[in-house]
Amino acid sequence: MVILGMIFIMSDWTAGYIADIGYTFGYYPELNPLAAKLAFLFSGLSYPKFSSACELGFGQGLSVNIHAAGSSVQWCGTDFNPSHAAFAQDLASISGAETKLYDDSFEIFCSRDDLPNFDFIGLHGIWSWVSEENQATIVDFIRRKLNVGGVLYISYNTQPGWSAMAPVRHLLSEHAEVMAAPGRGILSRVDAAFDFVSSFLNVNPGFLRANPAIVDKLKRVKGQNQRYLAHEYFNRDWRPTYFAEMVKLLEPAKLSFACSASYSDHISALHLTQEQQNFLKDIPDDDFRESVRDFIVNRHFRRDYWVKGARKLSGQEQLKELRKIRILLVVNKDDVDSKVKSSIVGANIQEAVFTPLMAALAKHQVFSLSELEISLQEDKVTMKSLVQAVMILISEGYVAIAQDEELLNNCKERAAKFNQHILDETESSDDINFIVSPVTGSGIHVNRFERLFIKYIKLGISDPNEWSKRAWALLSSYNQRFLKDGKALESDEDNLAEMLRRANEFLSKRVPIMEALQII
Question: What are residue 44's phi and psi, to 5 degrees?
Fold first, then answer.
């Protein structure tokens, strides 16, 4: 069936969602159930054990396959786009994980009678772009299939952060539907729509005078990946949801808000002035306080954990479980900055905590918080300040949570098979920039050259000179060159020298980390 009168000529199965181009090969760490552990414990909540999980709308399936290959959790999920599902199924077959992935619509998938109940259900980048009917279907599915004590991860566009950009999105979408020439592909319609809106703003409309920051916002947005823009701004259904609305929508599934999945949100001093913190403390209702906080920070996107039956921990229980958390440093020590991304100028980890903590973590070994607490006693680092520092380091991507040793050993073989496939594909494709660590059960970002260097190491080649020769031979065969100061390096000698510099840097800075993560 074809929907007439729309520029997006599509068949029924798309339900208004962009389907004529694939989504990006993104990885979303919040979909890893292990990521919820410290967030829950920091919030004083019991952390459930996970044995089964489901991802709704998995896109290209990179996250679901990384988390299946890197853990003992049994995953299943669906994405209505058959090309996405086929790619994801191929990845699953390579690792050997018992993952069940489908190309069902939400309506069909959520009515299947062959699915288990789940301890964890995740949706990233889906909720804001599906119809109200599909939202109701998802909520009913969560009500029926999420176990008591189970966790929902959900991310969505929210207000008030979208208040200025929402009208621009409307213009973009309307232009693509009404003004685009018949037969033009979605990417050309995206370009044309953005060009139109830029021209519109150049005539200084009243909307711009009321929202002067929209020009810079549009420039930043336009510079993003075209595939992302098509899926973000040009679907038929698109609606930011206030947090208070989400509370009501999820109430039939017996869910209550647990905590933010963004670790930096847990450290109020990073984003709120003392006056703002005091103002929020005077609000007795938890959910209303969360809504007001969104207005204070002008939030436009939320990443949240919800739970079916929250269990509060006593102070002693919380401390006991926090001490069991295992972490390791996943970047070079010299790349770690005590100053952190923050809305508050000058926010940083206290030097009295940061310096001894980094000295301990620099060994790139897995430490429990209990072990760190003991080793930092002479530096008078309290458990409270230690946990806060770790939360910030995780939010910055410097530190990762490690699995228990038994879980690590159970997934080593699957992780190795998955990674070898990604490494083998690197010579012909640069689509996937993540491999899995069995230590963290999560995806680790590695660029194309790093993946090649890892592959050579696994082949038994230890000399970075040989790595650079092989990698440059591959790069030059595609007629590609390095850029320096915005200009391409033309000679083979200059490009080979740049490749050798990167190889030596990888050997000295990244190899110890890859070894600690048990990737090599």
Answer: 80, 25
Say whether 439 sits in a helix, a strand or coil.
coil
Tokens of 155: 């991310």
What is the sign, positive or negative, of the torsion defined by CA atoms of 422, 423, 428, 431? positive
Residues in a beta bridge with 77? 55, 101
Count of beta carbons in the 10 Å neighbourhood of residue 317: 14
> CA torsion sign, 173 to 123 to 157 to 245?
positive
Cβ(55)–Cβ(122) below 8 Å? yes
Q: What angle do CA 354, 356, 360 make, to 5 degrees?
A: 110
How are beta strands 146-157 and 434-437 bridged, if at all? unpaired
Instruction: Look at 347 and 158; give whichever has higher pLDDT.
Output: 158
CA dist list (Å): 209 to 196, 203, 205, 215: 18, 11, 7, 11
How confident is the model at residue 197, as a pLDDT? 84
What are the angstrom distances between the C-alpha of 480 and each of 378, 380, 474, 501, 502? 53, 53, 9, 17, 16
Reported residue count of the chain is: 520
Helix, strand or coil, per DSSP, at residue 242: coil
CA angle 181, 182, 183 (to 5 degrees): 115
Q: Which helix (H) or strand (E) holds 503?
A: helix 492-505
Two tokens, residue 204: 């200084």
Sheet containing 367-368: give its strands across. Answer: 367-368, 326-329, 399-402
- Average predicted confidence (pLDDT) for the chain: 90
Q: Catalogue the E-assigned strands of 86-193.
A: 100-102, 118-123, 146-157
- Sort residue 425 into left (φ over 0), alpha (ψ -120 to 50) or beta: alpha
Residue 210 zone, left/alpha/beta (φ > 0; ψ -120 to 50; rest): alpha
What token pair was written down for 84? 């996405």
Residues 6+ apart with CB under 8 A from 432: 25, 62, 422, 425
What totals of helices (H) and strands (E) does the chain contain, helices first? 22, 14
CA distance 54 to 59: 13
Q: Which residues are within 8 A (CB) of 468 and not within 5 positions of it... i.e. 6 or more apart?
A: 496, 499, 500, 502, 503
**Among 328, 520, 518, 324, CA closest to 438:** 518
pLDDT tens track for 468-500: 999 999 989 988 889 888 888 989 999 999 999
Distance between CA atoms of residues 410 and 328, nearest Å: 19
For residue range 120-176, list pLDDT tens digits in order.
999 998 999 899 999 999 999 999 999 999 999 999 999 999 888 888 888 888 887
Which residue shows structure tokens 């952390």? 47
pLDDT of 214 higher than 90: no
Other C-beta atoms closer than 10 Å to the C-beta of 130 total 24
Beta carbons of 467 and 453 less than 8 angstroms apart: yes
- Identity of the amino acid at 78: T
